[in-house]
Amino acid sequence: MDKAIQGKGEKLSLLHERMEHLVAMLDSIDPEKAGVEDIDRIIAMLDELEAKCQQYRRIGI
């Protein structure tokens, strides 16, 4: 994710991939066995996605 992403399509594609990764992680977690670390990672991923969505909204993507 360090490379510069130029096009609108590329940016949206990367955002979509990150969302799919989060969904896959949520699907794989056993709610009975989820620990604090799992919950913290999910919250961090949601925060990152929210920040990226806000950034894209500001620049008009």
Describe the structure in your own words.
- The protein is an all-alpha fold.
- The chain has one domain (8-26, 34-59).
- It contains 2 helices and no strands.
- The chain has helices spanning 8-28, 36-59.
- α1 packs antiparallel against α2.
- InterPro entries: YfjT-like (IPR047670).
Q: For the terminal residues, how far apart are their CA atoms?
A: 18 Å
DSSP strand count = 0
Helix content: over 70%
Which spans have pLDDT < 50 for at least 5 consecutive residues?
none
How does the helix and strand content classify structurally? Answer: mainly alpha
SSE order: HH
Report on the biggest sheet.
none
Tally of alpha and pi helices: 2
The fraction of residues assigned to DSSP E strands is under 5%
Oligomer: single chain
The shape is: elongated
Radius of gyration, whole Å: 14 Å
What is the residue-averaged pLDDT?
88
Count of distinct structural domains: 1
Defining key terms:
YfjT-like, mainly alpha
Concise summary:
The chain has 61 residues and is mostly helical. It has helices at residues 8-28, 36-59. The protein has one domain (8-26, 34-59).
Walk me through the topology:
Blueprint: H1 8-28, H2 36-59
Helix pairs in contact: 1-2
